[in-house]
Design goal:
alpha/beta; Spore Coat Polysaccharide Biosynthesis Protein SpsA, Chain A; 11 helices; 9 strands
């Protein structure tokens, strides 16, 4: 990172890809909202936009008169290398002691920038997050599906990585540039704030409420690759946290670790069910397929129970009375999970007109999570966060 050239200078990183309809207006709006006593450096990092976003900024700069407290720079990258790396590229060129990261599509209102900067300077916090999920924050223009995906991703980040910030998925935030000194930021996912929060654990954080307004012009960059990159980054950050902690002490991570084992066992149960049913309907027995399927289900439930008892929850007490009692509860909660799944699918599709494939995903996740929590709490008598 370059040396800070001015006390109180703020660098604003604006990554762009096909933002020709928004970029000039966002640069003008930033200028209008920056207080006169602050020197601002706007850095547009363009990923070789086919619509000429970078060239538009260059032409705009040619027409501008020199301003005392506001400068604009543009970094032309040769390819679309990802949002996280674009932000890091901008940070490396930043001169400010305070750095602001924001989108260029007006979903992040420039009017919030002074509040973020004030939180850093006046309240002496290290990171200021523009939050959609604290009192006073809101989201406008999103479908139920998009809101659900955001909430679910936020839940994974908070529970899986032990983060207390209400909106760790925010793409609109400010921070002191010196907190990244000596930190290796990989910038895998599209939410770089998440990585900063994990790798600067212990710094002071303040959240500022704001209303997220979905873009008016251009198209959203959220796609399957973006979602996969997010889960990849969460897993890498989880491994990072585990390596730092040594012997795992984070209750949230222990919870997710056991959940992962529980669902791995569930996947093995599917294999047991399928293979048992298939073998019984072929070969010597040639059993009727419904009878074979019933035995397959019983075999998978049994294998799931014993694997979860011994491996997932580490319960080595196989006394007859205790085991039968646990097995009965396991069957009840597994059956309840099926009912929850059916009920949710019906509710979401019939009453809320949610597409069946998406409704099925929500229902399966809810049923599987409920199944795990109930068995953890009542079958194997463990505290939830243990």
């Amino acid at each position: 990172m370059s040396e800070i050239s001015g006390k109180g200078q703020v660098s604003i990183i604006i990554p762009t890809y096909n933002e020709s309809q928004n970029i000039i207006n966002i640069l003008k709006s930033i200028k209008e909202n920056i207080p006169k006593n602050i020197s601002a450096q706007a850095i547009v990092v363009d990923d070789n936009s086919p619509d000429g976003t970078g060239k538009i900024v260059e032409d705009y700069l040619m027409s501008l008169k020199k301003m005392a407290n506001y400068t604009i720079e543009v970094i032309h990258r040769k390819a679309k290398d990802g949002l996280g790396s674009a932000i890091m590229n901008g940070i490396q060129h930043a001169n400010g002691e305070t750095i602001v990261v924001m989108d260029s599509d007006f979903s992040h209102p420039p009017q919030i920038i002074p509040k973020l900067v004030e939180s850093i300077k006046k309240h002496q916090c290290d990171i200021a997050v523009a939050s959609r999920y604290i009192k006073g924050g809101n989201i406008k223009g999103w479908t139920f599906k998009r809101k659900f995906m955001s909430k679910f991703a936020t839940l994974i980040a908070k529970k899986g990585l032990g983060i207390e910030t209400k909106d760790p998925m925010s793409g609109f935030f400010a921070f002191k540039s010196n907190i990244l000194k000596g930190k290796n930021i990989d910038a895998i996912g599209y939410k770089i704030l998440l990585e900063i929060l994990v790798k600067t654990k212990g710094v002071s954080i303040k959240e500022i409420p704001y209303t997220f307004q979905d873009r008016e012009f251009g198209s959203s960059k959220l796609g399957v690759k973006t979602i996969l990159d997010y889960y990849k980054s969460v897993w890498k950050l989880y491994r990072y946290g585990k390596s730092i902690e040594g012997n795992e002490k984070r209750s949230s991570v222990k919870f997710l670790s056991k959940a992962a084992r529980f669902y791995t066992v569930g996947a093995s149960g599917f294999a047991v069910n399928y293979l048992s049913s298939l073998l019984l309907t072929s070969g010597i027995s040639e059993m009727w397929f419904l009878h074979a399927n019933m035995i397959g289900i019983a075999a998978s439930i049994s294998s799931n129970f014993f694997l979860n008892k011994a491996w997932t929850f580490g319960d080595r007490d196989f006394s007859l009375k205790k085991t039968l009692k646990q097995f009965s509860k396991f069957i009840i909660f597994s059956s309840a999970g099926i009912l929850v799944q059916l009920g949710m699918v019906y509710f979401l599709v019939d009453s809320n007109q949610i597409d069946y494939p998406f409704a099925l995903i929500i229902a399966v996740i809810a049923a599987a999570f409920g199944n795990f929590v109930l068995n953890k709490k009542f079958t194997f008598n463990e505290r939830l966060l243990k």
